[in-house]
Amino acid sequence: MRRLRTFAALLICGPLLATAGCGIGPFAPPPPPPAPRVVVPVVPAYAHADLIGGRAARVKKARAAGAKLLGPAAVYDYVNRQEIDLRRQTAGTGVDVIRSGELLLLRLPATSTFDVGSSVIRPQAVSTVNEIGLTLKKFNQSLVDVLGHTDSTGTPASNQTLSVRRAQAVAKQLGARGVSAARVATRGYASSHPIADNATDAGRALNRRVEIKVVPLR
Q: CATH number, domain at 131?
């Protein structure tokens, strides 16, 4: 009788055991491929530094030109709306919109914004800068730093000059779309803040860029 019960148990449990073990048997399906790695741009450390010229002086200058401070309770919603608008205006242009807390950083690749060695904005990139300018004009309770960068080719002096001129060119175009000069400052960093490897063509292309840093006026 005991043998009959054992046999019956095997008949019932055998298929279940076989199913449970199918994942490690010789006919097990291959494991799924790993998910593709997604690289999310982040705001680099240098962009978290104080505003060009110091926040207090910049706020004073902007207020003298008629800009109004944001109240603490209004800052979060203001930055949210500004971010949404900037992402919509730059979609499909190659511009990265990166956020860290209250700070927004727009990264314009120089390869599509300028010709090699030039600080004149390409005609096809002017429209992109114009759209950014219209948004920054609309959200006029922000301070703006325009930061120029180069790769490590060329001399330090020529890289510095080029990075300054490119930052100034973008700032001038923003001004042409109505962004008050009292809200904007520029700086050239030459090749001192790479975001990729200058030993490769792809890395150098990423390092040649202009960034627009936007912070709420509070």
A: 3.30.1330.60
